Amino acid sequence: MKTATSSIHEADKILIVDDEPFIQKVFSKYLSGKHYDVETADNGEVALEKLRSKSFDLVLTDLRMPKMGGRELLQIMSESFPDIPKIVLTGHGTNEDIILALQTGAYDYLTKPVTDLGILHHSIQRAIERKKLNDERVRYMTQINQINEIISMLNRGSSTEDIFNALDVTLKKFIPFNTLALMLIHSSPGEITPRLVASDSGSIITRETKFDFRDSLLKKIMEEKEVCALNDIHESAVLFPGSRLVDMLEHEDSRSALILPLIVSDRIRGFLLFASKKTGVFIKEHITFLESIGGQISFSIERGELMEEIENHTKNLEQTIEIRTKEILKTQKTTIFALGKIAETRDQTTGDHLERIRSYCVLLAQLLKYAGSGKSITNQFIRDLYDSSILHDIGKVGIPDSVLLKEDTLTKDEVKTIESHAVIGYDALKSASHELGEDSFLKMAMDIALFHHERWDGSGYPKELKGAEIPLSARIVAIADVYDALTTARSYKKALSHEDTMAIMRSESEKFDPELFRLFIQNAKEFNEIRMRFKP
Asked: What is the edge-to-edge ordering of all strands in the sheet holding 13-17?
Protein backbone atom coordinates (compact mmCIF):
# COMPACT_ATOMS: atom_id res chain seq x y z
CA MET A 1 0.00 0.00 0.00
CA LYS A 2 3.00 2.26 -0.29
CA THR A 3 1.31 4.82 -2.51
CA ALA A 4 3.26 8.05 -2.81
CA THR A 5 4.75 10.40 -5.33
CA SER A 6 8.50 10.61 -5.87
CA SER A 7 10.48 13.72 -5.03
CA ILE A 8 10.03 16.37 -7.72
CA HIS A 9 13.39 17.05 -9.31
CA GLU A 10 14.05 20.75 -9.39
CA ALA A 11 16.55 22.19 -11.81
CA ASP A 12 19.89 23.09 -10.26
CA LYS A 13 20.12 26.86 -9.75
CA ILE A 14 23.14 28.75 -11.09
CA LEU A 15 23.96 32.42 -10.53
CA ILE A 16 26.12 34.03 -13.24
CA VAL A 17 27.94 37.15 -12.01
CA ASP A 18 29.44 39.12 -14.90
CA ASP A 19 29.19 42.73 -16.07
CA GLU A 20 29.28 41.81 -19.76
CA PRO A 21 25.71 41.38 -21.14
CA PHE A 22 27.02 39.24 -23.98
CA ILE A 23 28.65 36.78 -21.56
CA GLN A 24 25.48 36.67 -19.48
CA LYS A 25 23.36 35.98 -22.55
CA VAL A 26 25.63 33.27 -24.03
CA PHE A 27 26.12 31.39 -20.75
CA SER A 28 22.45 31.74 -19.74
CA LYS A 29 21.25 30.35 -23.06
CA TYR A 30 23.75 27.48 -23.01
CA LEU A 31 23.13 26.47 -19.38
CA SER A 32 19.36 26.84 -19.69
CA GLY A 33 19.61 24.42 -22.62
CA LYS A 34 21.31 22.02 -20.20
CA HIS A 35 18.22 22.29 -17.96
CA TYR A 36 19.71 24.58 -15.32
CA ASP A 37 17.72 27.36 -13.65
CA VAL A 38 19.91 30.39 -14.42
CA GLU A 39 19.90 33.90 -12.95
CA THR A 40 22.37 36.71 -13.58
CA ALA A 41 23.91 39.63 -11.72
CA ASP A 42 26.18 42.32 -13.18
CA ASN A 43 28.26 42.87 -10.01
CA GLY A 44 28.97 41.44 -6.58
CA GLU A 45 26.45 43.61 -4.73
CA VAL A 46 23.55 42.40 -6.84
CA ALA A 47 24.82 38.83 -6.50
CA LEU A 48 24.82 39.07 -2.69
CA GLU A 49 21.27 40.38 -2.70
CA LYS A 50 20.16 37.37 -4.70
CA LEU A 51 22.16 34.95 -2.56
CA ARG A 52 20.46 36.30 0.56
CA SER A 53 16.98 36.05 -0.92
CA LYS A 54 17.09 32.56 -2.47
CA SER A 55 19.21 29.43 -2.62
CA PHE A 56 21.66 28.59 -5.40
CA ASP A 57 23.60 25.43 -6.20
CA LEU A 58 26.56 27.18 -7.85
CA VAL A 59 27.97 30.66 -8.53
CA LEU A 60 29.92 31.40 -11.72
CA THR A 61 31.72 34.74 -11.28
CA ASP A 62 34.04 37.09 -13.09
CA LEU A 63 36.72 38.88 -11.05
CA ARG A 64 36.72 42.41 -12.45
CA MET A 65 33.36 44.17 -12.23
CA PRO A 66 32.09 47.62 -11.17
CA LYS A 67 30.91 48.40 -7.61
CA MET A 68 31.91 45.04 -6.14
CA GLY A 69 34.25 42.72 -8.02
CA GLY A 70 34.66 38.98 -7.85
CA ARG A 71 37.54 39.08 -5.37
CA GLU A 72 35.43 40.70 -2.66
CA LEU A 73 32.44 38.52 -3.57
CA LEU A 74 34.54 35.36 -3.14
CA GLN A 75 35.79 36.50 0.26
CA ILE A 76 32.26 37.28 1.50
CA MET A 77 30.90 34.01 0.13
CA SER A 78 33.65 32.01 1.86
CA GLU A 79 32.30 33.34 5.17
CA SER A 80 28.56 33.70 4.54
CA PHE A 81 27.90 31.03 1.91
CA PRO A 82 30.71 28.47 2.31
CA ASP A 83 28.64 25.54 1.04
CA ILE A 84 27.87 27.06 -2.36
CA PRO A 85 30.51 25.98 -4.92
CA LYS A 86 32.18 28.77 -6.88
CA ILE A 87 33.80 28.76 -10.30
CA VAL A 88 35.95 31.75 -11.26
CA LEU A 89 35.85 32.85 -14.89
CA THR A 90 38.03 35.78 -15.96
CA GLY A 91 40.07 37.11 -18.81
CA HIS A 92 42.50 39.08 -16.64
CA GLY A 93 43.63 36.62 -13.97
CA THR A 94 46.90 36.95 -12.06
CA ASN A 95 48.74 34.54 -9.79
CA GLU A 96 47.33 36.50 -6.87
CA ASP A 97 43.82 36.00 -8.25
CA ILE A 98 44.39 32.26 -8.58
CA ILE A 99 45.67 31.97 -5.04
CA LEU A 100 42.76 34.02 -3.69
CA ALA A 101 40.29 31.85 -5.58
CA LEU A 102 41.81 28.69 -4.11
CA GLN A 103 42.00 30.16 -0.62
CA THR A 104 38.33 31.17 -0.70
CA GLY A 105 37.27 27.70 -1.79
CA ALA A 106 36.72 28.16 -5.52
CA TYR A 107 36.14 24.80 -7.20
CA ASP A 108 37.69 25.77 -10.52
CA TYR A 109 39.38 28.68 -12.30
CA LEU A 110 38.69 29.14 -16.02
CA THR A 111 39.95 31.78 -18.41
CA LYS A 112 38.03 33.72 -21.04
CA PRO A 113 37.21 33.32 -23.76
CA VAL A 114 35.73 29.85 -23.17
CA THR A 115 35.94 28.33 -26.63
CA ASP A 116 34.58 24.97 -25.50
CA LEU A 117 31.50 25.37 -23.33
CA GLY A 118 31.63 21.65 -22.67
CA ILE A 119 34.60 22.27 -20.37
CA LEU A 120 32.53 24.76 -18.40
CA HIS A 121 29.60 22.34 -18.24
CA HIS A 122 31.86 19.55 -16.99
CA SER A 123 33.26 21.74 -14.22
CA ILE A 124 29.74 22.81 -13.20
CA GLN A 125 28.53 19.21 -13.11
CA ARG A 126 31.42 18.10 -10.90
CA ALA A 127 31.02 21.04 -8.51
CA ILE A 128 27.26 20.52 -8.11
CA GLU A 129 27.70 16.76 -7.66
CA ARG A 130 30.12 17.41 -4.79
CA LYS A 131 27.67 19.88 -3.22
CA LYS A 132 24.82 17.37 -3.48
CA LEU A 133 26.96 14.71 -1.85
CA ASN A 134 27.69 17.01 1.06
CA ASP A 135 24.02 18.05 1.32
CA GLU A 136 23.01 14.38 1.33
CA ARG A 137 25.43 13.58 4.12
CA VAL A 138 24.19 16.50 6.19
CA ARG A 139 20.57 15.46 5.66
CA TYR A 140 21.18 11.88 6.70
CA MET A 141 23.32 12.87 9.68
CA THR A 142 20.51 15.17 10.81
CA GLN A 143 18.13 12.23 10.65
CA ILE A 144 20.51 10.11 12.72
CA ASN A 145 20.78 12.85 15.33
CA GLN A 146 16.99 13.12 15.55
CA ILE A 147 16.61 9.35 15.89
CA ASN A 148 19.23 9.35 18.64
CA GLU A 149 17.28 12.12 20.36
CA ILE A 150 14.16 9.93 20.32
CA ILE A 151 16.11 6.95 21.63
CA SER A 152 17.47 9.12 24.44
CA MET A 153 13.97 10.18 25.44
CA LEU A 154 12.78 6.58 25.56
CA ASN A 155 15.78 5.48 27.61
CA ARG A 156 15.05 8.21 30.15
CA GLY A 157 11.61 6.68 30.72
CA SER A 158 9.65 9.57 29.21
CA SER A 159 5.88 9.25 29.25
CA THR A 160 3.89 8.54 26.11
CA GLU A 161 2.67 12.13 26.13
CA ASP A 162 6.24 13.50 26.38
CA ILE A 163 7.32 11.26 23.50
CA PHE A 164 4.30 12.30 21.42
CA ASN A 165 4.96 16.00 21.96
CA ALA A 166 8.62 15.55 21.04
CA LEU A 167 7.60 13.64 17.88
CA ASP A 168 5.23 16.44 16.92
CA VAL A 169 8.14 18.92 16.97
CA THR A 170 10.89 16.66 15.64
CA LEU A 171 9.14 14.95 12.74
CA LYS A 172 8.00 18.25 11.23
CA LYS A 173 11.61 18.76 10.20
CA PHE A 174 11.19 15.83 7.79
CA ILE A 175 7.47 15.43 7.11
CA PRO A 176 5.02 18.28 6.25
CA PHE A 177 1.87 17.75 8.32
CA ASN A 178 -0.78 19.85 10.11
CA THR A 179 -2.22 17.15 12.35
CA LEU A 180 -0.56 14.29 14.26
CA ALA A 181 -2.59 11.62 16.03
CA LEU A 182 -1.56 8.56 18.03
CA MET A 183 -4.30 5.93 17.77
CA LEU A 184 -4.20 2.75 19.90
CA ILE A 185 -5.95 -0.57 19.36
CA HIS A 186 -8.16 -1.97 22.14
CA SER A 187 -8.73 -5.63 21.35
CA SER A 188 -11.50 -6.45 23.85
CA PRO A 189 -14.09 -3.94 22.58
CA GLY A 190 -12.67 -4.14 19.06
CA GLU A 191 -12.07 -0.40 18.88
CA ILE A 192 -9.33 1.97 17.79
CA THR A 193 -9.23 5.28 19.67
CA PRO A 194 -7.00 8.37 19.44
CA ARG A 195 -4.74 8.51 22.52
CA LEU A 196 -3.20 11.91 21.70
CA VAL A 197 -3.91 14.51 19.00
CA ALA A 198 -1.93 17.63 18.05
CA SER A 199 -3.04 20.03 15.30
CA ASP A 200 -2.01 23.52 14.25
CA SER A 201 -5.34 24.09 12.50
CA GLY A 202 -7.83 22.23 14.65
CA SER A 203 -9.06 18.66 14.22
CA ILE A 204 -12.39 16.95 14.71
CA ILE A 205 -10.52 13.77 15.63
CA THR A 206 -10.40 13.78 19.43
CA ARG A 207 -9.72 11.31 22.25
CA GLU A 208 -13.44 10.55 22.34
CA THR A 209 -13.51 9.47 18.68
CA LYS A 210 -13.86 5.74 18.09
CA PHE A 211 -13.05 3.68 14.99
CA ASP A 212 -14.18 0.11 14.35
CA PHE A 213 -11.85 -2.74 13.37
CA ARG A 214 -13.97 -3.05 10.23
CA ASP A 215 -13.04 0.45 9.04
CA SER A 216 -12.01 -0.37 5.44
CA LEU A 217 -8.84 1.77 5.51
CA LEU A 218 -7.55 0.67 8.91
CA LYS A 219 -8.45 -2.97 8.17
CA LYS A 220 -6.36 -2.83 4.98
CA ILE A 221 -3.36 -1.42 6.87
CA MET A 222 -3.65 -4.10 9.58
CA GLU A 223 -3.68 -6.80 6.91
CA GLU A 224 -0.67 -5.49 4.97
CA LYS A 225 1.28 -4.04 7.94
CA GLU A 226 2.83 -1.33 5.75
CA VAL A 227 2.94 2.45 5.76
CA CYS A 228 -0.02 3.88 3.84
CA ALA A 229 0.07 7.19 1.95
CA LEU A 230 -3.15 8.86 0.77
CA ASN A 231 -2.24 11.80 -1.43
CA ASP A 232 -5.82 12.70 -2.33
CA ILE A 233 -8.36 12.17 0.47
CA HIS A 234 -11.28 12.83 -1.89
CA GLU A 235 -10.22 9.99 -4.21
CA SER A 236 -9.51 7.77 -1.17
CA ALA A 237 -13.18 7.99 -0.20
CA VAL A 238 -13.91 5.95 -3.33
CA LEU A 239 -11.10 3.45 -2.68
CA PHE A 240 -12.14 2.88 0.95
CA PRO A 241 -15.95 3.12 1.07
CA GLY A 242 -17.47 3.37 4.52
CA SER A 243 -14.19 4.33 6.20
CA ARG A 244 -15.02 6.67 9.06
CA LEU A 245 -11.38 7.81 9.25
CA VAL A 246 -11.38 8.89 5.58
CA ASP A 247 -14.76 10.62 6.03
CA MET A 248 -13.51 12.56 9.07
CA LEU A 249 -10.30 13.60 7.33
CA GLU A 250 -12.29 14.82 4.34
CA HIS A 251 -14.77 16.63 6.59
CA GLU A 252 -11.99 18.56 8.40
CA ASP A 253 -10.57 19.58 5.00
CA SER A 254 -7.44 17.42 5.16
CA ARG A 255 -6.16 16.67 1.65
CA SER A 256 -3.40 14.09 2.32
CA ALA A 257 -2.64 11.50 4.99
CA LEU A 258 0.22 9.20 5.98
CA ILE A 259 -0.43 6.34 8.39
CA LEU A 260 2.29 4.36 10.17
CA PRO A 261 1.26 1.05 11.80
CA LEU A 262 2.90 0.61 15.22
CA ILE A 263 4.04 -2.99 15.29
CA VAL A 264 5.21 -4.80 18.44
CA SER A 265 6.21 -8.48 18.28
CA ASP A 266 4.64 -8.77 14.81
CA ARG A 267 1.35 -7.42 16.16
CA ILE A 268 -0.11 -4.01 15.40
CA ARG A 269 -0.70 -2.04 18.60
CA GLY A 270 -1.81 1.21 17.01
CA PHE A 271 -1.21 3.83 14.33
CA LEU A 272 0.52 7.17 13.97
CA LEU A 273 -1.52 9.41 11.67
CA PHE A 274 -0.11 12.41 9.77
CA ALA A 275 -2.59 14.69 7.98
CA SER A 276 -1.96 17.70 5.74
CA LYS A 277 -4.16 20.44 4.29
CA LYS A 278 -2.33 20.10 0.97
CA THR A 279 -2.73 17.46 -1.73
CA GLY A 280 0.14 15.18 -2.72
CA VAL A 281 2.70 16.32 -0.14
CA PHE A 282 3.77 12.90 1.09
CA ILE A 283 6.51 11.30 -1.00
CA LYS A 284 8.47 8.05 -1.02
CA GLU A 285 11.25 9.53 1.11
CA HIS A 286 8.73 10.17 3.91
CA ILE A 287 7.61 6.54 3.76
CA THR A 288 11.19 5.30 3.89
CA PHE A 289 11.97 7.52 6.86
CA LEU A 290 8.90 6.37 8.78
CA GLU A 291 9.73 2.74 8.06
CA SER A 292 13.22 3.28 9.49
CA ILE A 293 11.97 4.96 12.66
CA GLY A 294 8.68 3.14 13.19
CA GLY A 295 10.08 0.55 15.54
CA GLN A 296 11.62 3.25 17.72
CA ILE A 297 8.28 5.00 18.08
CA SER A 298 6.67 1.67 19.00
CA PHE A 299 9.29 1.30 21.73
CA SER A 300 7.19 3.59 23.98
CA ILE A 301 4.58 0.80 24.07
CA GLU A 302 6.85 -2.15 24.73
CA ARG A 303 10.36 -0.85 25.42
CA GLY A 304 12.15 -3.98 26.53
CA GLU A 305 11.15 -6.19 23.58
CA LEU A 306 12.09 -3.56 20.99
CA MET A 307 15.49 -2.39 22.25
CA GLU A 308 17.33 -4.61 19.78
CA GLU A 309 15.04 -3.52 16.94
CA ILE A 310 15.69 0.15 17.72
CA GLU A 311 19.43 -0.39 17.46
CA ASN A 312 18.96 -2.24 14.17
CA HIS A 313 16.95 0.65 12.76
CA THR A 314 19.75 3.05 13.58
CA LYS A 315 22.28 0.76 11.89
CA ASN A 316 20.02 0.47 8.86
CA LEU A 317 19.94 4.24 8.52
CA GLU A 318 23.73 4.40 8.75
CA GLN A 319 23.95 1.74 6.02
CA THR A 320 21.56 3.83 3.92
CA ILE A 321 23.99 6.75 4.20
CA GLU A 322 26.89 4.55 3.10
CA ILE A 323 24.96 3.10 0.15
CA ARG A 324 23.74 6.53 -0.98
CA THR A 325 27.23 7.98 -0.69
CA LYS A 326 28.69 5.17 -2.81
CA GLU A 327 26.03 5.69 -5.46
CA ILE A 328 26.92 9.36 -5.78
CA LEU A 329 30.66 8.67 -5.73
CA LYS A 330 30.35 6.26 -8.67
CA THR A 331 30.72 9.32 -10.90
CA GLN A 332 34.33 9.48 -9.78
CA LYS A 333 34.97 6.01 -11.25
CA THR A 334 38.46 4.93 -10.36
CA THR A 335 38.64 7.08 -7.25
CA ILE A 336 35.91 5.10 -5.57
CA PHE A 337 37.42 1.88 -6.98
CA ALA A 338 40.83 2.56 -5.51
CA LEU A 339 39.78 4.26 -2.29
CA GLY A 340 37.23 1.55 -1.70
CA LYS A 341 40.05 -0.97 -1.54
CA ILE A 342 41.88 1.19 0.98
CA ALA A 343 38.76 1.44 3.11
CA GLU A 344 38.55 -2.35 3.18
CA THR A 345 42.10 -2.89 4.38
CA ARG A 346 43.13 0.20 6.38
CA ASP A 347 41.64 2.63 8.85
CA GLN A 348 41.58 5.89 6.90
CA THR A 349 43.79 8.34 8.79
CA THR A 350 45.12 10.25 5.82
CA GLY A 351 42.19 12.47 4.93
CA ASP A 352 44.04 15.68 5.72
CA HIS A 353 47.11 14.38 3.91
CA LEU A 354 45.10 13.79 0.76
CA GLU A 355 43.49 17.23 0.94
CA ARG A 356 46.90 18.84 1.34
CA ILE A 357 48.44 16.88 -1.53
CA ARG A 358 45.49 17.73 -3.77
CA SER A 359 45.69 21.44 -2.89
CA TYR A 360 49.49 21.62 -3.26
CA CYS A 361 49.34 19.96 -6.68
CA VAL A 362 46.56 22.15 -8.06
CA LEU A 363 48.31 25.30 -6.84
CA LEU A 364 51.63 24.28 -8.37
CA ALA A 365 49.99 23.36 -11.69
CA GLN A 366 48.10 26.67 -11.79
CA LEU A 367 51.30 28.58 -11.06
CA LEU A 368 53.11 26.79 -13.88
CA LYS A 369 50.25 27.40 -16.28
CA TYR A 370 49.99 31.12 -15.63
CA ALA A 371 53.76 31.56 -15.54
CA GLY A 372 53.63 30.75 -19.26
CA SER A 373 55.74 27.61 -18.97
CA GLY A 374 53.00 25.02 -18.69
CA LYS A 375 51.68 24.87 -22.25
CA SER A 376 50.48 21.32 -21.68
CA ILE A 377 48.50 22.30 -18.60
CA THR A 378 44.87 22.57 -19.68
CA ASN A 379 41.80 22.88 -17.52
CA GLN A 380 41.25 19.16 -18.06
CA PHE A 381 44.82 18.48 -16.88
CA ILE A 382 44.15 20.38 -13.66
CA ARG A 383 40.83 18.61 -13.08
CA ASP A 384 42.49 15.23 -13.62
CA LEU A 385 45.37 16.21 -11.32
CA TYR A 386 42.90 17.26 -8.62
CA ASP A 387 41.21 13.84 -8.75
CA SER A 388 44.20 11.58 -9.39
CA SER A 389 46.85 13.11 -7.11
CA ILE A 390 45.22 11.57 -4.04
CA LEU A 391 45.88 8.11 -5.51
CA HIS A 392 49.66 8.52 -5.49
CA ASP A 393 50.16 6.07 -2.59
CA ILE A 394 47.30 3.71 -3.42
CA GLY A 395 49.81 0.88 -3.78
CA LYS A 396 50.53 0.95 -0.04
CA VAL A 397 47.37 -1.09 0.37
CA GLY A 398 49.51 -4.04 -0.69
CA ILE A 399 52.34 -3.42 1.80
CA PRO A 400 52.23 -5.58 4.98
CA ASP A 401 51.52 -3.70 8.21
CA SER A 402 54.69 -5.14 9.72
CA VAL A 403 56.67 -3.11 7.17
CA LEU A 404 54.39 -0.17 6.47
CA LEU A 405 53.85 0.66 10.16
CA LYS A 406 57.29 -0.27 11.44
CA GLU A 407 58.80 2.39 13.72
CA ASP A 408 62.38 1.05 13.70
CA THR A 409 64.90 1.38 10.86
CA LEU A 410 63.91 -0.67 7.81
CA THR A 411 66.17 -3.38 6.44
CA LYS A 412 67.26 -3.28 2.79
CA ASP A 413 64.64 -5.89 1.92
CA GLU A 414 61.96 -3.91 3.76
CA VAL A 415 62.95 -0.74 1.90
CA LYS A 416 62.48 -2.62 -1.38
CA THR A 417 59.11 -3.82 -0.13
CA ILE A 418 58.03 -0.25 0.64
CA GLU A 419 59.27 0.95 -2.75
CA SER A 420 57.18 -1.71 -4.47
CA HIS A 421 54.05 0.26 -3.63
CA ALA A 422 54.61 2.36 -6.77
CA VAL A 423 54.33 -0.69 -9.03
CA ILE A 424 51.49 -2.18 -6.95
CA GLY A 425 49.49 1.02 -7.29
CA TYR A 426 50.15 1.21 -11.02
CA ASP A 427 49.08 -2.40 -11.53
CA ALA A 428 45.87 -1.87 -9.54
CA LEU A 429 44.93 1.18 -11.60
CA LYS A 430 45.88 -0.57 -14.82
CA SER A 431 43.57 -3.42 -13.83
CA ALA A 432 40.81 -0.87 -13.27
CA SER A 433 41.41 0.53 -16.75
CA HIS A 434 40.48 -2.83 -18.23
CA GLU A 435 37.09 -2.50 -16.53
CA LEU A 436 36.46 1.20 -17.12
CA GLY A 437 38.24 1.86 -20.43
CA GLU A 438 40.69 4.57 -21.38
CA ASP A 439 40.34 7.85 -19.52
CA SER A 440 42.60 10.90 -19.15
CA PHE A 441 42.12 10.88 -15.39
CA LEU A 442 42.90 7.17 -15.18
CA LYS A 443 46.04 7.53 -17.34
CA MET A 444 47.31 10.36 -15.13
CA ALA A 445 46.56 8.36 -11.97
CA MET A 446 48.66 5.49 -13.32
CA ASP A 447 51.56 7.85 -14.13
CA ILE A 448 51.43 9.42 -10.70
CA ALA A 449 51.24 6.10 -8.83
CA LEU A 450 54.22 4.67 -10.74
CA PHE A 451 56.51 7.70 -11.10
CA HIS A 452 55.92 10.08 -8.16
CA HIS A 453 59.10 8.79 -6.48
CA GLU A 454 61.24 9.38 -9.56
CA ARG A 455 63.72 12.25 -9.25
CA TRP A 456 64.95 14.82 -11.78
CA ASP A 457 68.58 13.68 -11.33
CA GLY A 458 67.71 10.00 -11.87
CA SER A 459 68.09 8.97 -8.22
CA GLY A 460 64.47 7.89 -7.77
CA TYR A 461 62.56 4.66 -8.28
CA PRO A 462 61.24 2.37 -9.73
CA LYS A 463 62.58 3.16 -13.24
CA GLU A 464 65.35 5.69 -12.38
CA LEU A 465 63.95 8.09 -14.95
CA LYS A 466 65.61 11.49 -15.45
CA GLY A 467 64.37 14.98 -16.28
CA ALA A 468 61.52 15.24 -18.74
CA GLU A 469 61.33 11.46 -19.00
CA ILE A 470 59.20 11.73 -15.86
CA PRO A 471 55.57 12.69 -16.62
CA LEU A 472 54.73 16.26 -15.59
CA SER A 473 51.95 15.13 -13.27
CA ALA A 474 54.38 12.92 -11.35
CA ARG A 475 56.94 15.75 -11.12
CA ILE A 476 54.29 17.97 -9.56
CA VAL A 477 53.21 15.31 -7.07
CA ALA A 478 56.86 14.59 -6.18
CA ILE A 479 57.36 18.11 -4.81
CA ALA A 480 54.01 18.10 -3.01
CA ASP A 481 54.62 14.66 -1.50
CA VAL A 482 58.12 15.46 -0.22
CA TYR A 483 56.98 18.76 1.29
CA ASP A 484 54.05 17.07 3.01
CA ALA A 485 56.11 14.12 4.22
CA LEU A 486 58.68 16.40 5.88
CA THR A 487 56.11 18.68 7.52
CA THR A 488 53.92 15.84 8.81
CA ALA A 489 54.54 13.66 11.85
CA ARG A 490 54.87 9.91 11.32
CA SER A 491 55.05 7.04 13.79
CA TYR A 492 58.82 7.07 13.38
CA LYS A 493 59.53 10.84 13.25
CA LYS A 494 58.34 14.28 14.30
CA ALA A 495 57.02 16.89 11.90
CA LEU A 496 59.55 19.46 10.71
CA SER A 497 58.73 23.16 10.58
CA HIS A 498 58.00 24.85 7.28
CA GLU A 499 61.35 26.67 7.45
CA ASP A 500 63.40 23.53 8.16
CA THR A 501 61.58 21.69 5.40
CA MET A 502 62.32 24.42 2.88
CA ALA A 503 65.99 24.35 3.87
CA ILE A 504 66.22 20.59 3.34
CA MET A 505 64.45 20.73 -0.01
CA ARG A 506 66.71 23.57 -1.21
CA SER A 507 69.74 21.45 -0.34
CA GLU A 508 68.33 18.66 -2.53
CA SER A 509 66.93 20.85 -5.29
CA GLU A 510 68.64 18.78 -7.99
CA LYS A 511 66.03 16.09 -7.37
CA PHE A 512 63.13 18.28 -8.54
CA ASP A 513 62.00 19.82 -11.82
CA PRO A 514 63.88 23.15 -11.81
CA GLU A 515 61.00 25.27 -13.11
CA LEU A 516 58.45 23.70 -10.77
CA PHE A 517 60.82 24.00 -7.82
CA ARG A 518 61.47 27.68 -8.60
CA LEU A 519 57.72 28.38 -8.51
CA PHE A 520 57.44 26.33 -5.32
CA ILE A 521 60.14 28.39 -3.60
CA GLN A 522 58.71 31.70 -4.82
CA ASN A 523 55.27 30.80 -3.49
CA ALA A 524 56.35 28.99 -0.32
CA LYS A 525 54.09 31.18 1.79
CA GLU A 526 50.99 29.95 -0.04
CA PHE A 527 52.02 26.32 0.39
CA ASN A 528 52.52 26.90 4.10
CA GLU A 529 49.05 28.47 4.33
CA ILE A 530 47.53 25.35 2.75
CA ARG A 531 49.49 23.22 5.22
CA MET A 532 48.13 25.22 8.14
CA ARG A 533 44.57 25.07 6.79
CA PHE A 534 44.67 21.27 6.67
CA LYS A 535 46.98 20.85 9.65
CA PRO A 536 46.41 17.45 11.32
From this structure: 37-41, 13-17, 58-61, 86-90, 108-111
- Does residue 282 register a pLDDT over 60? yes
Whole domain around residue 26: which residue ranges? Answer: 13-115
- Based on the fold, state whether residues 161 and 238 are members of the same structural domain: yes
In whole angstroms, how far apart are CA 293 and each of 167, 286, 321? 11, 11, 15
Q: 403-424: per-residue pLDDT in tens?
A: 877 878 889 998 899 899 899 9
d(C-alpha 363, C-alpha 53), whole Å = 34
Helix axes 440-451, 421-436, angle to 10 degrees: 170
Alpha-carbon radius of gyration of the chain? 30
**Co-location of 308 and 358 in the same domain:** no
pLDDT above 50: residue 297? yes
Residues 381 and 301 in one domain: no
Band (150; pLDDT cuts 50, 70, 90): low
**Distance between CA atoms of residues 263 and 339, nearest Å:** 40
Query: How many domains, the chain?
Result: 3
pLDDT band at 480 (very low <50, low <70, confident <90, very high): very high
Domain edge (last residue) among 51, 80, 115 = 115
